Every structure is written in structure tokens, then in C-alpha cells.
Amino acid sequence: MAALVTASYLPADIGAVVAIVPPHIILDVVDAGGGLTLQPVFTLRGAPLAYVDGVTSVAAIFSGQVTRHESPKHAPFRFRHSDAQRPIWNSVAKTDPAHIPVERMQAPLFIAAGGDDAAWPSMLAGEHLAARLKGRAVTQPVTFLRFDSAGHDIWVPQASTQLSRSLYDPSIDIWFETGGTAAANANAQIKTFAKVVRFFKRHLK
After folding, report:
1. In sequence order, what are the residues at sequence separation of 6 or more whose Cβ sits closer than 8 angstroms to the Cβ of residue 198?
2. In this structure, are strands 174-177 and 75-79 parallel, antiparallel, or unpaired?
3. I need a surface site. Which of 26, 92, 105, 192 has the fewest CB within 10 A?
4. Which pLDDT value is given to residue 138?
5. 188 phi, psi to nearest 5 deg
6. Which residues contact 127 (CB under 8 A, 6 or more apart)?
């Protein structure tokens, strides 16, 4: 998200952008120390950038709007962020200021997304980004890798595909599902890492 936002608001300063399992809108951040309040993530010249309030769905967890998957082995429950977020992400108007204005970018873009991303619907977001980029004035190449069975954690090949299928947040005592199978995540990691290296070599001098 940070790379997309930076390249959109400071287009002349960025030569190439890699967005792994990206959102297409600016998300909030949870201040667990402040009573689970939602805060803006980015500022520009001292002013906060617009963001989608509550898309992290933390409020939905505690209000019972999200199905709780009991997991006594690890924590009180697990849940999939993306199940709650998908309808929200689809309903955000294209003119909403929380949309990342990627059409302003001057740099080539590389996107990799997982179709079983449980943290947030990155495949859906990638489609939104690609569609929005069709309207930009400066034409630069867009690479979009889609991994239907992979989850959120598409890391470098050395990362554990077993550990990356869920993530513990000690601030609110919850295991978040990140999705994908071990085999699909490993495949996505290997292919993405190799293509990212080639992408940077091609576009950064």
C-alpha cells in the first residue's frame, strides 16, 4: 500500500512499483493502545489522506458481525478479514477520495495477488487497480500475477508457508487467517520473487 500511495502522490520520484497482495483503497490502522480506535495511515504535507473507515473489520469482530471460528488450540477464535471486507471494497465509489489514485503514477507497476487471500481480497483489489490504470495519461507496463489458490503471504521463497497461513495479533488476542495452501503459497512465493527481480532489473537503471 505504501508504495502505491507514494508513487501516486509523488509520481516523479518513483521509478518502479511492486505491490504484493495490495489494496486499492487506503486502509485505516488500529490503535490497540487507544481502545481499538481507527487512525489514518498516511499524511501529505501535514494533512491525513482519506481512508476507508472500519475496513479492517476489527469493530465487526467484537460486535459479532463476523463469524467467529473457534480455535482453542491457539486463541479464542480465528477469522477471515476478507469475508467482511469484500462487500465493503466493492461498494466504495470510484470517486471516493480513499481510492489510491494510481492513474497519476508514472512508473511501471508489478502486482501479485492471491485468490484465497483471507487478510483482504487482494485479487479483487488488483483488478480495481488494473482497471483504474487504463485511464492514466502516462502509459507504462503493468504486470499482474494471479495465484488463484494462494493466500495473503506471498513472501520470498525462504519464508515458511506453514506459518504464513495464519498470523497472531497479541494486541487483541486473535489469530487472523491469511489463506492459501502451503503448496500454493510456496509456488506463488517462488514465481513472484523471480519475476520481481527481473522487473526491477528491467525498469531501474
Report:
1. none
2. parallel
3. 92
4. 62
5. -65, -40
6. none
Dihedral (C-alpha) 34, 125, 98, 176: value to the nearest 10 degrees? -10
- Residue ranges in the chain whose pLDDT is less than 50: 34, 55-77
The per-residue b/e assignment along 157-191, b for 16 or more CB within 10 angstroms, e otherwise, is eeeebeebbbbeeeeeebbbbbbbeeebbbbbbeb
pTM (2 decimals)?
0.81
Alpha helices by DSSP H, listed for 15-171, are 58-63, 81-91, 122-133
Q: Which residue, 205, 93, 196, is CA-closest to 144?
A: 196
**How many residues in total does the chain contain?**
205
Residue 57: name the closest of 65, 46, 45 by CA. 65
Please report where in the chains the cell 497482495 appears, as a residue. Answer: 21
